[in-house]
Design goal:
The structure is a homodimer.
Chain A: E1 2-4, E2 11-15, H1 19-24, E3 31-36, H2 37-43, E4 52-55, H3 64-76, E5 84-89, H4 91-103, E6 109-114, H5 117-123, E7 131-133, E8 136-140, E9 148-151, H6 161-178, H7 180-188, H8 191-195, H9 198-218, H10 233-242, H11 247-265, H12 272-282, H13 293-300, E10 306-307, E11 310-318, E12 321-328, H14 329-342
Parallel strand pairs in A: 2-9, 3-4, 3-5, 5-6, 6-9
Antiparallel strand pairs in A: 1-2, 7-8, 10-11, 11-12
Helix pairs in contact in A: 3-4, 4-5, 5-6, 5-9, 6-7, 6-11, 10-11, 10-13, 11-12
Chain lengths: 343, 343
């Protein structure tokens, strides 16, 4: 157990502990679980005697309407300022429950129990939450730190293969922006290696949580280094909803595009984009998708990273060394057009 | 100009300055005004060449649905992280626009230009924002400090008499919990006195802003003294929506009930409730209303100040000296029942 304290709340990370041990830390009778119907089906025996609010699973439900439903359910349960919301699920659940906890009665207690690799190494860490507005991703939300994040690897036993692949996209992202040694380790191993070695998996998850945690501690409100975590996400988010690609595949394509731009603009050594593509493919990730730039561009313009006429784009100087570079929108559009013509 | 810095943002108070002088402090082309249709009609010449989002006026619109509409309008305007939302209106507008600013793209810049006495001395100060959920008041929202609060007393020239009365309820509240000398001043003057003496009005507003500002600076997230500001609001909020009473009248009744309980529980000298009733009546405020306790009680149970089986109730030890006292729900119900039987 160790704590960080970005903002007004400390987050305690509970690595390799059970869901029951999290419940023991919380006041009896004051816990409300928020989960989705898939997780509920698989894990309901863990929730006995605790009120549960269930949302439909899937990214399509990550909208204000679903949060309104969570709020209505909290009111019906007479949840008060001493209630602790415990989110159990993937990133969609932790994002929506975290957002609901931050606005219900202007903020109640919050604990997260991520059940997917993606949520463990990314979505649940750092306090960002929110919902999509139509096709625009994460347009509404807050930055609100949970009191606890529980890493119970037993949840992963029912995780579909597709979700493992999704999660490793964020792990590869961390390697690209901050950890060249991790990039090497991933290149020398495989997804199935981690799936069959619980100890190595636990240490991989913890290593990735630490990468994100350090960045977040130093920059809770994303005025600097935290922007690096958006590597691959600017174009990735835009194509994710338009092409109904899973998040991991979409940002995988986004990382390849960002790496290509990095060779041109940030001095990334020639051939490193090729190494990245090889690694992404080895972990089952898509690295190219045909897309219509005009449709994608409309969504890119709404990106939170846009400021006036330029976009704060994340590039690589080298594998393991991400940087933030404002790119004028006209130049960015020309570069992506050129990329599309080449590929 | 002076600043306070509760939380991550400093608030600059612009006393007795014009709306145009606020605009001069903000980046050209990045301002979006949020206002209601009444204020828009009266003030639109001040808004030329600035995009305006207009919401319907009135407490009934203070719901998530209206905030969803503000978000959709911001997206349509391609508002980005460098946009400044300027809320121009009464408490309903500043509450909704402040909430929208705090969640749009996880937080954009915010300035408030309150146009009513109530918003100037209360709603706009302290960073609390939010919306009602059905009949439950302020059930959803955040604590988010604006960068600027502008006090332009010219806005008051079109304020209806009813709204003056509403605003003075909060001024009398401040006197009750923190400022016995202000209670004396108010007892020796009248509403029409302040309406006809701009200098005395300006100094009255500033004095009240300072009372709230000091409390908020010391307790942004309401773990202590900030609760005092809820004097009269626990019962007041509950009867406000059920009986469709204006906010000032509802909390006026709430203050009388709280003062009555204070004589019983907190040593408020006998007769001070009578002095309070006289003052409230002199400023045109209702001090008694017939209500059905069972209906009110259902709403009281949802109050944010409830914790488990007791309610943190605000009482007076003396005029100018408020205290927080947890009252068990059973005792509270008995006391209000007795009050209703006597009155």
């Amino acid at each position: 157990m160790e704590t960080i304290s970005p903002g007004r709340l400390k987050t305690t990370y509970l690595f390799n502990q059970s869901f029951a041990s999290l419940l023991k830390l919380l006041p009896e009778g004051k816990v409300v679980i928020v989960t989705d119907d898939h997780v509920y089906k698989a894990q309901q025996e863990k929730f006995s005697n605790i009120p549960v609010i269930t949302v439909p699973s899937g990214e399509a439900t990550k909208q204000q309407k679903t949060v309104d439903d969570i709020i209505a359910a909290l009111l019906k349960l007479q949840a008060d300022k001493s209630t602790v919301i415990v989110a159990v699920g993937g990133g969609v659940v932790t994002d929506m429950a975290g957002y609901a906890a931050s606005i219900y009665k202007r903020g109640v207690r919050l604990a997260l129990a991520p059940t997917s690799i993606l949520a463990m190494v990314d979505a649940a860490v750092g306090g960002k939450n929110g919902v999509d507005v139509g096709l625009y991703k994460n347009m509404v939300g807050t930055v609100y730190q949970p009191e606890y994040i529980l890493f119970d690897y037993h949840f992963l036993s029912t995780l579909p293969q597709e979700e493992w692949v999704n999660g490793f996209a964020e792990i590869i992202k961390h390697a690209c922006i901050k950890d060249a040694a991790l990039f090497e380790e991933l290149s020398n191993t495989s997804l199935s290696f981690y799936q069959h070695d619980p100890a190595r998996l636990a240490s991989l998850v913890e290593r990735n949580v630490r990468i994100k945690k350090v960045i977040v501690e130093e920059d809770e409100f994303e005025t600097g280094d935290r922007k690096l975590l958006n590597f691959g996400h600017t174009v990735g988010h835009a194509i994710e909803n338009v092409h109904h690609l899973p998040h991991g595949h979409a940002i995988s394509v986004g990382m390849v595009i960002a790496a290509t731009l990095s060779e041109e603009l940030a001095g990334l050594p020639m051939g490193d984009t090729r190494r990245l593509i090889t690694l992404l493919n080895a972990y089952g990730l898509t690295t190219a998708v045909k897309f219509n730039l005009d449709t994608i561009w409309e969504i890119l313009l709404m990106d939170k990273k846009r400021a006036n006429d330029s976009m704060n784009f994340i590039l690589l100087r080298a594998i393991g060394d991400g940087i933030i570079m404002p790119i004028p929108l006209t130049q960015l559009k020309a570069l992506i057009t050129a990329y599309l013509e080449r590929s």
